Amino acid sequence: MSAQANHTLVVGIGASAGGLEAVSELIRHLDTRIPACFVVLQHLSPNHKSMMPEILSRETDLPVIGLQRATKPRQGTIYVVPANSNAIFKDGRIELTPAVPEVSPKPSINKFFTTLAKEMHDLAIGVVLSGTGSDGTAGLRAIQAEGGVAIVQKPDTAKYPGMPQSAIDAGCADMVLSPKDIAKHMPSIVTMHTDSNESIAENQMKQIVAMLSDSMSMDFSGYKSGTMQRRIRRRVVSSGAGRVGDYIKLLSERPDEISALASEILISVTAFFRDKDAFESFNQALLQHLQEHPEKNDLRVWVAGCATGEEAYSVAMLIAEATAGHDSPLQVQVFATDLDEEALQLARRGVYSIGALAEVPNYMIDKYFKQTSQHLEVSKKIRDMVVFARHNLVTDPPFMRVDFVTCRNVLIYFEPKLQRKVLQRFHFALAPHGMLFLGRSESITQAEELFYVVNRRDRLYGKSEQAAASVINAKVSRKAPEQTVEDIPTKDNFALLHQLLLDIRSAMVVCRRDGSVIRSMGDVARFFNEKKIGASEPSDIGAGVTNAIIKPFKDELISLMNQLDWNGSRVFGTVQVIKGEYWQLLLMPVREKSDLHLAVVILPAFLPSAKAQAEALLSSDNDHDSVLRDELNATREQLQTMLEEMATSNEEMQSLNEETQASNEELQATNEELEAANEELQATNEELISLNQELNVKTAELVALNDEYEHVYDALEFPLLVLDAQGKLLRFNAQAQRLLNLRGHSIGRDFATLKLPNYLRNDSTALFEKVFTEADTQSVMVRDGENVIQVTVTPGLNNAGDVYAVLVTLIDVSDITRAQEQLRQSQQQLSQIMSNTTIILAMKDLSGTYSYVNPRFIEAFQRDEEAVLAQTDFDVFAHDFASSVWEHDLRAVRTRQPQICEHSYSDSEGNTRIYRMVHQALTDDKGKAYALINEAEDITQRKKAEQQLQIAARVYEQAGEAIVVMDENALIQTVNSAFEKLTGRDEEQAKDTCFWSLLRLGRESEGPNNLRNTLDAEGFWQGEVTIGRGNNDTLSVWLTVNRIQAADSEKSAFVAVFADISNLKESQRKAEYLATHDSLTGLPNRTLFHDRLEHAIEIGKRNQSEVGLLFIDLDNFKTLNDTLGHDAGDDLLIQAAERLKTVARETDTVARLGGDEFTVVIADSTMAAAERIARQTLDVMSQPFIIGRRKHFMSASIGIAFFPTDGLDTTTLVKAADTAMYRAKENGRNRYEVYKEELQSQLMRHASMENALREALQKEQLYLEFQPKFSVKNPDEIIGAEALLRWKDPKLGQVSPADFIAVAEQSNLIVDVDFYVATALIRQLARWQKDGVDYPVMALNVSPKSFQHESYVDLILRLLDQYQVKSLMIQLELTERTLVSQRNSELGNIERLRNAGIQLSIDDFGTGYSSMSYLKRLPLAELKIDKSFVDGLGLENNDEAISRAILAMAKALDIRTVAEGVETKQQLQWLQQEGCDYAQGYYLARPLSTEDFIIRLQQGRKNEH
């Protein structure tokens, strides 16, 4: 389906997972009247159910639908693509495709936008909102390329600006707006596409084209009108001008808007390797061209309409790949041209976003691009191949001798005439064997004679070397046969030919090969549609000949055109009868100037061909002279025509001669100018001779000066070189000649070619470049073995400040360098020692001013180095600390001896640190002190450790855990008092005893040797052990043993700590039991049950045996629990558990899952064994239970499933057994059922119908029908009706009430159904009441569950009051089970209905819990005799007896009777005889729709009258 045929516009909206806020804001502000649909694609996790439809539906009144299958879009609807699928737009439908399991966002925005652009073309609209990554960029580029609208959220309004910014960087954004502004502009954007009546007037269009031409020098007059209209309207919307007239005024006021409009019309959109298949064909053609022309040393390619350069660089990369293996270098030149200067600027930069390179293979990215922050830049190699230039395809001259021309998606915007003109230029530009590469939507139709087809699908064409011969059949696969081509008459003969055709009432049309008409002559109106082919006079026409010719010739014309295409010579059609005359169609190729066209001639059928006519004339001797005369006259006329043409040619030659004379005069004037210039050159030459003489004098002086300089150079003791600006050697001194081995022939040689030492060759190049760049002296130190050479390069500058020469000096500074290195190493060693020592070190002068502090000092005292240096202790520290330090400094100066003292220091956090400080005085050779040295050590931790050691000794003795210290052989050295309490051994008894001998580790693998190995390997062991006590008893303890290795000794020791854990073990055992067993019955709980079932299945898999599972549920347990209380229920569950233990084998597992559900796992089971246990279970459960000294009876329902038949894992097996148990309950309880596959199918159908019923209630798909009640005495009289609920599901079709009412009752939906029926009925009664319909009493059925709700009666009363319906017109039909119940809620509802005047009726009387008491005490109006009794009336005595009893009882109680299901006349007669009041059934009337019921009611009223 084309975009034109699909009238529903589709707007794609893309965002990532963080774009929900932006999507919601856009949807919230959308106008609900927009004639378009919206497709939302948001990146979400495919592992979780999406709530997007529900979330978005809260923001808008538009319907929001989650896509599940292929959907034809509807106007005014929002579709949400699920996260586990991708969406495409194909054939006018939104289709879902499976998402490939790859690390990429899903659903793909690019994929949907691309298919949307391909399908909708310029009607496509794409929106990219907040998100990370670059998804959507390629899709927007595809939309732009097709002329659609690409909209992007403003990055500063996006929570995650990655996706919008990527699209903006790639130049893919037509509009950049906030989500709210996007919604605001959306009506205008959509209207621009949908309102075909809104066109731009021709004069306005011409005015805009003229303004573009004047301001931008761009002529758009040849562009297609539709394209121009859409582009201008888009700018009208974007600029907010409103109307075209206002926009023209805006163009005259704002030059920047003219530029924006020009860019809009140019559509500067392209992409790398756009259409991969087409580029693959182009690559094959390129390779074939290079292979067929190996002699070529250059390759020229013209990329016309290059836009931002992606296509040009794509072509360049393919050329680079194709020429990579060539032996000889190939000069490649790619000319990339476009009118858009801004696009060309972007192309020249060659910088693109990562998203723009999505279609470029990774190996090409690595090879031809380099990363720059968030972008990729084209390599220099590729950029050097491409030349970008502004060029007009129509007015500027084309490039010459190009091998390939690529012009993709440019011609589609041109009118046919302009297309032909451009194609002619391309033909002229191409070299022989050159090729043309067009876009998918373009062709060479307007110039077929100029090219032949190489690959029609991928639009590759070759230059035709015989262009004129290919107009009829330009195909590569076969050559067209030689054609008999007629010349079109000259212009002077058009009138004659036209008159001749009029005389014979014929017509001729000359057209191009594509059918577009050039001229028409003769009686055209007779055979062609004048509206399509123009006036009868010869004229230039633009309509197609196949559309204009009358119907009898239309199909034949197409066939003859194909035949002419194949044969190449003229062809005749069959004879056609037109208004009683016979006519024949003739097609022949004709030539006009250098072009070949097609002539369509309609001739009378009786005229023979020219050849046959000549033969007929010559066959008659009598007419021979007449023939000769006719030929002579024709020859005269032809000669006259040739004379006239020759005269015309002479006039043209005369004009050309005049032009030649004018050119000759211009050349004569140019010659005179050259002679004057020659005289000026002669005078200049004389002046140069004079200057040469002066130069000779200066040269002699310069030679003398040069000799002096050479003596100076040679006297220097280091090498010296002089180079010119090109790096050639000008001179060198004697020292350079000796050390560098230079000779006279080295003068003039390039510096790089001189045989110089490696150090000079390697390091000098960069130095030279820096000198030429900065024009300043540069120096570097280099090594030549053990020697160090200082290379200095000094520039020589001219008056302009440019470098014209450089002076290179090489000075050996090895001795100086070695001395400096030794000094540096000494200083470095000293600095490292002072900086890395752990000692706090400081130096002061004799006044106490700090001159040096090491990093440890700064760290310890938390002072900056700048804050300490040049300060005294009193400036830096507190007074007490400073005075203590200064006092000992002075003592060291006086005594000349080191002073050691401990100082207390309080840091900035208030912590006290203790420093042991050594104070020394440095003295000179004379013993005079000149400096002070302070060395300090932080001994705070040592002091604390001493205190802790004393505390630890007390803790060790008083600890509650036993502590044992052993030597390396595990002999006890010391123990604490807790050891004696736990083991009964004092320290005397324990000393020198092996500690391992006291332990009992259980398993042999956990013995002392293993414990010792662990200690040796890891140095640590802990675990639970038993330890022997003095009275031969053992004690469970938790033991921790650590190995202790002394720092100054290889010997190790062990410390063991243990504590009594007997009470802890007992608590742990109880906790483990409670975690896996039911606290009430002592049976395994759900966790242990699953573990044992899984274990049984594993054994079954290994032994290939079956595992049986019984799922047991106690019947009516809830009733007992509710009536007798939970204590009685718990007592019954305990007794039931004990009984189940008696029937199970010892190898079986009996478990309680919760409530009244039990299971039995039967390992290595058979069907017989499982059924035997099930029967025994039913027997024991049917025995009376003694609860509170009373007997209570209980039964059970059992489901049986087997592994592997019914399930291969625990979940499946439990589900199967549970399903079978529910089937047992449905079949009457107190029984067992074996799982069958169809049980699961029934449950699935039940669940499916339940879900469909819920949806039907929400969407109000249920409706009412009405079955009338008739008077038995007068069967035509309608006295009432019963409202019946019906359901027609879109998928399930018409669903029987017996099916869906049963599902509703089982799933508790029956309450919702009853509420729905009550609401629908009362609303219908209100409508009848408003329309004046006189309706009878209407009855509706109520389930027991609904009647228990007080809210149901509230609903009835509220609806009656709301719609002003009389309560006497409503009747509720209740079942006997509802009335038998004695619950307060039901009794209260009955009383409220009685007070409201609403009548009650008993439905299906006699089939339930019939009780005479409620007939006596309840306000009943009717008894309805069940259909099961009515069926036997007149046939079965029992049914008649029961029916008579019901009628007699009702009559005695003054209650009306209604017979249900009356289907025969015999039944009706019996009821009349026995005195029944009313009847209903198919014999009287089937359930009727609302309309049919009104008709039947009105008919009944007429019959009564």
From TrEMBL:
Where does the record place the CheR-type methyltransferase domain?
193-466
- SMART domains, alphabetized: EAL, GGDEF, MeTrc, PAS
What cofactor does its activity depend on? Mg(2+)
* Domain (PAS): residue spans on this chain: 948-989
Q: What Pfam families does the entry give?
A: CheB_methylest, CheR, CheR_N, EAL, GGDEF, PAS_10, PAS_4, PAS_9
For this record, the Gene Ontology CC terms, alphabetical, are: cytoplasm
Keywords, comma-separated and alphabetical: Chemotaxis, Coiled coil, Hydrolase
Domain CheB-type methylesterase: from-to ranges: 10-193
Question: Under what name is this protein listed?
Answer: PAS domain S-box protein
Q: What species does this protein belong to?
A: Pseudidiomarina donghaiensis
